[in-house]
Amino acid sequence: MNILDKIVADKRKEVTLKKYVIPSQQLEKSVLFERNTNSLSQALRDSNTGIIAEHKRRSPSKATINQNTNVGQVAKGYKTAGVCGMSVLTDIKYFGGSIEDLLLARASVDIPLLRKEFIVDEYQLLEAKAYGADVILLIAAVLSEKEIKELSNFAKNLGLDVLLEVHNEEELKRSIMPSLDMLGVNNRNLKTFEVSLDTSKELSDLIPDDFVKVSESGISTIEAIKTLKEFGYKGFLIGENFMKTDNPGASAADFIQQLK
Ligand SMILES: O=P(O)(O)OC[C@@H](O)[C@@H](O)c1c[nH]c2ccccc12
């Protein structure tokens, strides 16, 4: 079993338990369920910088990145920095996040928020909406074409933007469908943790122009963004490079300033 299989097996158990504790009907009663969402794909289309900044305490590939964060403050810092959106990791076991992190970010800022999670069940989409998300991530490596279709349509009906993440040509080819807003290429292989920006470069031509292209992971330099832009990317998902500093918001601000 690779790490991704383990994460997904644990996730299925977690979702089963959560359904008992907080049934779907209860999620639908959340005041946030009625909230009008903000589109990240539109924000990226309108932007020259395209930064999506992530809140990430730790990861299986890196252990601790930053355990002393106040997610509300990080969200405000990212917003002030001028990011297009913020990604909030909500997985507890492997990334040290929580669904409450999403809620705290929502209470602090009005920018588009991405629920960064291993989504395997519609329940998690109801939860995303109920806790204030605008966007959800679907990971092709853990979903069939049918699952991607069902989950993305379900998300669209809730008014959520959909970012579909791929890592290779096979995943990309079976995943392209109209219910997606953004196609993300993860430069990190979630099974081996190997990182290479070449993944984004190699797959860019295969992504139809109607989708906003996002490059994810391992981005830490202005040079990298300039190169990725030449390959058609409009969005850049950055976690560790900001989170490893004492002040993620300030480091995002400094980065975005240099991009302008
Ligand atoms: O910290 P980085 O290398 O900048 O990466 C951020 C983000 O791309 C990464 O956290 C990520 C991309 N896809 C994921 C799927 C699940 C968990 C995490 C991720």
UniProtKB/TrEMBL annotation:
It holds the Pfam family IGPS. Its EC number is 4.1.1.48. Coiled coil: none annotated. Pathway: Amino-acid biosynthesis; L-tryptophan biosynthesis; L-tryptophan from chorismate: step 4/5. One of its GO terms (molecular function) is indole-3-glycerol-phosphate synthase activity. It catalyses: 1-(2-carboxyphenylamino)-1-deoxy-D-ribulose 5-phosphate + H(+) = (1S,2R)-1-C-(indol-3-yl)glycerol 3-phosphate + CO2 + H2O. This is Indole-3-glycerol phosphate synthase. Belongs to the TrpC family. SUPFAM superfamilies: Ribulose-phoshate binding barrel (SSF51366). Keywords: Amino-acid biosynthesis, Aromatic amino acid biosynthesis, Decarboxylase, Lyase, Tryptophan biosynthesis. It comes from Maribacter litopenaei. It comes from the Bacteria. NCBIfam families: PRK00278.2-4. HAMAP family: IGPS_B.
